[in-house]
Request: fold
Amino acid sequence: MNETTAGPILTTDGIPLKVSLQKAEKRNKIRALLLVTPLLVFILITFLIPIGDMLLRSVDDSYINTVFPKTFEKYQKWDRQGLPSEELYKTMFFEVKEGSGFSIGKATTRMNYAKSGWKSLLKKSKRKFKKIEEGPYKEQMIAIDKRWADMEYWKALGVMVDATTAGYYLNAVDLKYNVDKEIIRQEENRRIYNHTWIKTFKVSVLVMFFCLILGYPIAYLLSTLPLKYSNLLMICVLLPFWTSLLVRTVAWMVMLQQKGVFNNLLVMAHIISDESRFKLMYNETATIIVMTQILLPFMVLPLYSVMKTISPNYMRAALNLGASPLHAFWKIYMPNSVPGISAGCMLVFILAIGYYITPELVGGKDGQMIGNWIAYHLKTTLNWGLCAALGAILLGVMTVLYWVYNKLVGIENIKLG
Amino acid sequence: MALPSYATTGQRVGWYAFLTYCGLVFFFLIAPIFIILPLSFSSSPFFEFTREFMSLEPEAWSLRWYRQMVGISSIGDTTVVSNKWMLGTRNSFIIGLSATFLATALGTVAALGLSRRSMPFKGTIMAILISPMIVPLIITSAGMFFFYSKIGLTHTYLGLILAHTALGTPFVVITVTATLTGFDTNLIRASQSLGADTMRTFFKVIMPLILPGVISGALFAFITSFDEVVVVMFVGSVEQITIPKQMWAGLRQETSPVILCMATCLVFLSIALFTTVELLRRRSERLRGIKLRN
Reply:
């Protein structure tokens, strides 16, 4: 008798209740997970793996090794003192002569990143090598083009020996490997990315700042007005949110161009003369104005939902105790609305740094951000390694911010409308 | 909050200054959208309000760009039918509707799982599921372009539909999870104890209650796909024209006022969708006595 009361409580089928409960808990967990699995797998395949693939591409340097496998094998043994031996020249000769034009062409694009000139050298050599039937090859190759006797070219191959490279990341911050695989600064006229990174951050911070100073008052107004008025005004915030991004960009082009609405109004009001119309379009100003309008709802909504929870009694109490309205606002209302400010600012900043469409359409040359360079390398220069490296850095910044946002606000608290 | 009757002059001035400022901000938000409506009826080939247009002269107003949009334009005596816009509209609807269907199905089921109390790693999984909404489109496009070309999905409708589904699911997950907060799980138990199986419980008990959230999510997913241009540009082929892609091309190359006509149509579409979502949200608030937005 004593034994049964002291022992664990059992369910009807004789299993301890604790075990049985744990089992049920586990079953519930698995059931919940099963419901999420389809979407998780879908997102994994269609979204996460592609992004992972892009990240791998940013360090991948294996292609060239598949085009000149034997050359690179022999190359490892070269002491880098004086020109390579006849043997290495011979291997290179045959791999260039017999390799397919397409794969060599693709490889030379990469080789040109390490030392410009490789592309034309190989193109010329490929054509002339056909006439050479027998060795010794070294002299004949040098006779075709003096560059074969240039140590710099041979040394540059060393940068590409490994199957992975940090070279694209270096390029993305205006650095590069020299032929001896030391990190040096990019040539003066090629330093564009540090400038662009700074500009991207500058534009994002400015957009965030303007969104805050425009969004804070209207969020305050919306949260204090009676519901029937605030619902009406809320439409002004939510409708742009629902309107196509391109439509809004077109609208801004109509507004801001030289003969646009804004300039016309100023001329009509005789504030400016017809000749001195403002250049508001196709520059950084345009990017900032348009992005502010587009991202403003993302600032107002989090602010509004926090301000809604601040009791008006706090302000009344402060005023009652003799604080001036400004003082009461600064000391009481502001600190209470900080969660909304941080959520809104984070969200706007996160969305702003990755912007591509708006700067591309209204930014002109001066308003381009890092997203535009990613697109440029993706479709114009086809330097996909650099494209991936720029994307990876941007993604890294985003992930940190996203993580902070998640800690601060909680991702499940995102609200839409 | 209005001014109390004992407010000083300074306070009054401050209050009205504040209201004016807010009015200007609201104007800044909403005006650009409506400025294009009248301009789409202009006969001028440029995006500008001409003097004749402003003084309401009949010949400055016309429907010629609308005619061109639907594929009828007359140059001289011959009628030229260029239906790029209509082709784009068709494609946009095919891709948008398919992506919406997939996103809604996957997202709703996932939201049901996420709302369970027993859900492990809830925060992490939620962060992963929301990430397509946060990651910049240009990065998503680059990744998809590289990976989809490996598996032969670039230049196909399937590739675009899958990509847009991935972009749309976060919205469905968010809205349905929001609708499920405060969902009375006893209803499920009641249904099961009365003998209904899982499917029947889902369609007869859960679905009618979360339907507003599901529809809102579906509309969000639809507008996301309908408005998306970056992925279409990189993953799709040149022939796969959608409305935003055609607008993009129009802005970069030809700058034709047909864009304004299409933009006007899109504004009305977004007003319609927005109104539907708002009505649904209010209905759901009224029915369940809780507020989703606050």
